[in-house]
Design a protein that fits this description.
single chain; 5-stranded parallel sheet; 3-stranded parallel sheet; VWA domain-containing protein; Uncharacterised_CoxE
Length: 398
């Protein structure tokens, strides 16, 4: 049953196991999908998908496989108008009026359903034959037949394919561009490497509390640990303006997330345009005189700072390899841009480069030559949740 769907899920990168698929088949045999494609959609997602981050990928595959499938949710527009107008509530005292055909097999009901759609030309209330409201038909809305198809009710305007097509979970993806909260959660990982303060255990350890509660047969068991002392020092260097303009909102989110974070002993944020030269700017506008000398930063901030560059690394090769390659008019650099970058590589033990350009475009996008060159100096990661987490792990490796 739906074996091609199983193989499509696997082909699109979703790790669906045979055991999970057999569990789904068993659930279908027990009628847990309620003979509805929408029910099947929710059942599949609850059994086959193990993480919220995979919901969006699942929805894309679901919409791809079931696109065009006609379901009870896909009634003609006029039927929905008939079913939504003037719903009536009435008591049924004569139980004998209930259609005795409601025990038919689902396939037979579906055949009847399609026939009714072809036959019915107007709104209908009550009765035991037409698709309508308040009646006893095996198909309709707000009626009294507990067997058959429920047409309408809550969520009636969205079929399973429509729900999947809305992609409500795209922000949960691991490979999506980050929002402020995701930045904050990712940077929070740095906190676990701060040192513990000697003293009483006053900080609730959520992970251990969950583990101990599970081991304690579900009875809550709180676990406390000593509070952490922030020891992480972070230097954030952000490329601004020029080719980074399309990513300005993303960089602004990053700035806000880092600025609001309380997980650092010290935080320094500076800006540059395309490449680093004699000065680092104190604002994203990269204006003259609103800067500090790069050598001052290198000499003042010790080697324990963890350094994160954020930029597309895309520029003219001359900006890396020529004297005077600085693209800002009126500024001249004696030292090559690539040499300035190598100074940071030598000075700091832990450093990464986050690139907002998709990794699979690095080899052919504008600036591919300089992207490759900078990637040889710094470990470069894609600016997605997966990329940021991988980059932070790189920063934390002892």
């Amino acid at each position: 049953m739906f074996l091609e769907f199983f193989y499509l899920l696997r082909a699109r990168g979703l790790e669906v196991t045979i055991n999970e698929w057999m569990t789904l088949i068993e659930a279908l045999d027990r009628g847990l999908a309620h003979a509805s494609l929408t029910g099947f959609y929710h059942l599949c997602r609850s059994i086959l998908i193990k993480s919220e981050s995979e919901y969006d990928k699942f929805e894309q595959v679901f919409a791809e496989y079931f696109q065009g499938v006609e379901t009870p949710e896909d009634l003609p527009k006029e039927f929905w108008e008939w079913l939504s107008q003037d719903e009536r509530e009435r008591d049924i005292n004569d139980k004998g009026n209930v259609d005795d055909r409601f025990y038919r097999e689902f396939e037979e009901i579906m055949r009847m359903f399609r026939e009714r759609i072809e036959e019915q030309k107007e709104k209908h209330d009550g009765g035991s034959y037409w698709i309508g409201t308040g009646g006893t038909s095996t198909m309709g809305r707000g009626g009294y037949n507990n067997q058959g198809i429920r047409v309408g009710g809550r969520g009636r305007h969205r079929s399973a394919v429509q729900i999947a097509g809305e992609r409500n979970f795209k922000d949960f993806r691991q490979d999506t561009i980050l929002d402020i909260r995701q930045f904050q959660m990712a940077f929070r990982k740095l906190r676990q490497y701060s040192s513990r303060v000697d003293g009483e255990r006053t900080e609730l350890d959520i992970d251990k509390t969950i583990d101990e509660t599970c081991e304690n047969a579900g009875m809550l068991k709180l676990v406390y640990d000593r509070p952490r002392k922030n020891t992480v020092k972070l230097l954030l260097l952000i490329d601004s303006d020029g080719s980074m303009l399309p990513y300005s909102r993303l960089c602004n989110r990053l700035f806000q997330a880092v600025s609001k974070s309380n997980h650092f002993k010290d935080l320094k944020i500076y800006y540059f345009h395309n490449c680093i030269y004699d000065h680092l700017y104190t604002t994203p506008y990269c204006k003259k005189e609103e800067w500090v000398e790069t050598n001052w930063v290198l000499n003042t901030l010790d080697s324990e700072y963890k350094v994160i560059f954020v930029g597309d690394a895309a520029m003219a090769p001359s900006e890396l390899y020529r004297k005077g390659g600085n693209s800002i008019i009126g500024l001249w650099n004696e030292e090559l841009g690539i040499e300035w970058l190598k100074k940071f590589e030598k000075r700091y033990k832990k450093k990464i480069w986050l690139n907002p350009i998709a990794r699979d475009s690095w080899e052919w996008a504008y600036g591919s030559t300089t992207i490759q060159a900078i990637g040889e100096v710094f470990p470069m990661f894609e600016l997605t949740l997966d990329g940021l987490e991988a980059g932070i792990k790189k920063l934390l490796v002892k």
